[in-house]
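Hi P.,

Sorry for the delay on this. The queue was packed all week, but I finally got your sequence through. Input first:
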Amino acid sequence: MSHTLDVYLHNKLTGKLTQNKSGTLSFQYDTDYVKNKHNPAISVSMPIQTEMYEGNSVKAFFSGFLPDDIVRHRLARYLGISEKNAFGFLEVIGGECAGALSLYPEGQIPYKVQATDIESLDDKKLREILELLKRRPLLVGVEDIRLSLAGAQDKIAVTVKNGQIALCKGTSPTTHILKPVILGIKDSVHNELFCMRLAQLLDIDVPQTDIGWAGETPYFLVERYDRVRTQDNVVTRLHQEDFCQALSVMPELKYEREGGPKIANCLEILHIYSATPAVDRLAFIERVIFNYLIGNADAHGKNFSLLYKKVAPTLAPAYDLLSTAVIPDVSVKMAMKIGGKYDPDKVFLRHWYQLVPETTVAKRNLEKQLFKMAESCLERAMGLKSILASQGIVSTVFDDICAVIKTRANWIRR
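Then the structure:
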């Protein structure tokens, strides 16, 4: 017996996701959806067609909306389903996914957003929610909450209303991602805040970030770049897909050494599909340099995305920027090789050259980009530390990150 979920994009019935009795997933665009030539595809890996999609592209795309690793294991245990059952997860939590996609039981029409869908959280209630999150990933089981977020970290999607954190229920779109402290990692909230703010100071496109407190416990709050407010203050969704989804790579294979995307694959995706390929390829390389400098070894294929503001996508703002080099017992090997090297200490100028075309102009431009970023990153990092201190945000992890940047910048200059 097969099971089916209706797939909606921008609240429009787009197609059906089906799981047959053997567990194989298939996706087929809705006939009426196909007839309108202006309708967008759900993924560059699955262009609009009348024929059914089966196999790896379907499984990789829809699995890409689910949490990774430990969070997925805990979620599966709570729901009583297999960790590999992507369909089973989406049936329960697929109402609010990354981007503009949502999934519902076949025949169920999403009801309209209502004012009662927003539940404001005072400090006590927020602390209770964060405690509940430790036991229930993504707050699964809480009435009318069906949200799915990728990644290996506990997090919840919320909205901010009049400066206060609020839960969204039903079909109400969320506006922010809230990340609590990662247990066992020193000042993880301060680490991510520092790296994201530093990227912003270097003119890297990043969403707005903040640090909040639930009692004495900090949390990281980042605005969703796949949500926008209209002039009449209505929140609408923008579609997105990460590079693993675009390349039909399963999320558990997101690291290059496991078969995940390479830098060359990501640049090729931007070259083929981006509305502004030259600009986005330069921005992507800039982020590779930045991740190298801050010591972010976790910049894998799921941490880069395409964002659909119009029909053709562009490179999404940077996200999940964290210095993993300051975390003890975490591998320093980078998620994607630079010129064939995973070890940052073995990356020389000749390896950086392999990211660009074999022309003198391209190599000179890359050199300028490298040296400028190396000089600016440390200078801006030291300035940022002072700025945050003036706001009462202090942590010794800031010094640790600055030390990594200094070492990496000196290595580039040599």
